[in-house]
From TrEMBL:
InterPro entries: DUF2147 (IPR019223). Residues 1-22 form the signal peptide. It comes from the Bacteria. Keywords: Signal. Residues 29-150 form the DUF2147 domain. This is DUF2147 domain-containing protein.
Amino acid sequence: MAVYKSIFTALVFSVISSLSYANDDPLVGKWKTIDDRTGYSRADVEIKKKPDGTYEGVIVETRNIPGTDKMVICSNCPGHLKDKPFLGLPFIWGFKNDPDNPLSYVQGKVLDPIGGKIYKGKARLNASGKRLTIRGYVGVSVIGRSVTWIKY
């Protein structure tokens, strides 16, 4: 009986440690977006790592800027994203960890749901892993816009 108990205990600790290891990815989790023009938080995005090793973020909550109506549908979004609800909408996708810098992510796409455009994207975590700066750009990254998100 003691053998089974110790095997069970070892199995439980193994599962717990593997689950905690899976959550050690600093990019994975829930992020509060901050609008760089107004300073307000417009949405929460949950970033997950896909089986192919890329990262995708979907909108899980939206907020309106005081004095404006809450946007519910992505009426300006292009293609198959047009007129989709904001909740569940892919907001960033295709980001890959930069092999030369573990705090940087490259080759992504960023959707501007207000303007309806999709931009090339790159991102960088700060050293604590609590702030993510995402840059959307056209052509070269000099021609673009950066926003900072805060991790929950």
